[in-house]
Amino acid sequence: MARYIVRRLAGMVLLLILVSGVTFIIFNVFPSTDPAALRAGRQPTPQIIERIRADLGLERPLYVQFGDYIYNVFAHLDFGRSYVNNTDVLDQIRENLPATISLAIGGVVVWLTFGLAVGIISAVKHRSVLDRAAIGLSLIAISAPVYWLGLVALYLFAPDFGVFGLSFLGGQGAYTPFSDDPVKWFQSLVLPWFVLATTFAAVYARLLRGSLLDVLGEDYIRTARAKGLSERTVVLKHGVRSAITPVVTVLGLDIGILLGGAILTESVFNIPGIGRLAYEAILRGDLPIVQGTVLFGAFFIVIMNLIVDILYAFLDPRVRY
Amino acid sequence: MALLEVRDLTVQFETDDGIVRAVDGVSYTVEAGRSLGIVGESGSGKSVSSLSILGLTRGAGTRFRGEVIFEGRDLLAMSDEELRKIRGEEIAMIFQDPLSSLHPFYRVGDQLVEAVRAHHDVSKSAAKDRAVEMLSLVGIPDPRSRVDAYPHEFSGGMRQRAMIAMGLINSPKLLIADEPTTALDVTVQAQILELIERLQEETGSAVILITHDLGVVAEVTDEIAVMYAGRIVERAATAELFATPQHPYTWGLLRSIPRMDAPRDEELVPIEGRPPSLINRPSGCAFHPRCPFVRESHKRIDPQLEPVDGLPGHDVACLLPTPTRRDLWARLAAGEAADRARAAVPMGDHAE
Q1: Which chain B residues have a beta carbon less than 8 Å from that of A317?
Q2: Which of A157, A215, A307, B182 has its CA 20 to 30 A from that of A80?
Q3: Is there a contact between A289 and A277 (Cβ–Cβ < 8 Å)?
């Protein structure tokens, strides 16, 4: 197990270097803003731009710049500074990460609650009216784009201008850090959580339903019934226990992706998370920030992937590394 | 009073292709402590009829008729909750493939403990002691440590032993074993059968043994019922059935098992054709499309299960006259081919 983890971690580092290499190439090969001009502020003289260019080392060959960057990242955890406002990239990410984590965790709780409940009920009441309704609704939920759903949610429920304004909710841009005021934090995130969770809940409901339907046809479910276990125990302890494994895989990856920033949800609700940071950096051509957020996003995905694989050995005793 | 009395049991499944008549009016009884073998090909309804005893075929598209009287109570008419209390406590069941029949994620011992605690309010440790005791009874070596193993850490034979231990852990009055040896190696098959036989004697529970292999039930059961296309076509005490089989389908089954005492060059004779559709049953005798001794009238007349003349306790559903059957089997048993036997024996001319 330990050897397996070490091997996976080594592979992870290689993958992250590769990811940043690709980002680096995209930014430097495709026409983009001149970083020196970004840094120089308004109406810079050519001399200032030249000097900044030299300071940032932009005259050096690309592979030297890249090697330098990778060395700083892995040796000193130094992700560079923003071309736009000279803030440290790592500090910037640290500042925006709590909002993204808040959004992701609440979203996961909401979508698991609804997705798993609907999935189990649908599978147990297979082909009933309830099942068909749930599957139909989930198709609508999957088809609804987040930005549209977000705007509809705000239009309906926003405390200030919503049709059915719910005064206890926070509206757009109301995000308050947990450390400042937990109650306001919660209120400001309720709408984003539900908007973010809608699509995921629908996907998970369908995933679990399909997986559980397969499992409920297994011989060991028949054995469980033949033992005289209650239907509840049969479904939850024997059925869901097996059916949940594919859900865990997908969940791990989804959490990884979300920690890299939920760009659409963060944008609609004006939440200062990693997604919005990345989005704004891309618009400005701010390579260090883009690099940093991409690397963090990739890191979360890879690490969650590893966690899922390790978790698998605990979920399924037949799996050994 | 019989322990279990199945009366005119009919089980039908509604499917998109039509109604599957899986079990079509089956009746049999099992006395306490006795054993019954139900033999037939896949699709003969032997598994469905026994699963239906425990309500394991209950579902939206399933229709039942008849009665399944267990100790005076009709299991078919019971609510799910009433039936749940019978399952695993009064009647236990073990299945064909012990690997897929045990939950892969739970320890063998935990699955046995669960079977105890589903019916008895005992502590986990007491239930576990009972599990160890049962594993030891079914011949699993070192049961105290093996109780914590997962099913995939057991061999096929060990798994089936564990399944049997689980089935018998609450000392049921009836054990239904559905093809318990089919998925196992030949050498292990005999051990499992011996085990079932021994435990039946020790615990006094009745056994229904379902199999496609007459050789399997020969040693183990007191009585045999042969099923074809959802019905019992022949029923007799085991020795009686092997000595004077009456139904051409039973003959086919007997001639397709290898025997130690047969000459080395004797060929095994498979039964020609395929099991019939249970959606569109053949007219008349359901076996007529495959019967080497079929006559025109057999395609119209549906034979009923009736006592054989002169053989009390032996029932058969066959339209051939008893003397004709006796002569045919005498020739087949001597190794004669079916067409030659047919030519040599006067086929009688009742109903023709």
Answers
A1: 104-105, 150, 152
A2: A307
A3: yes
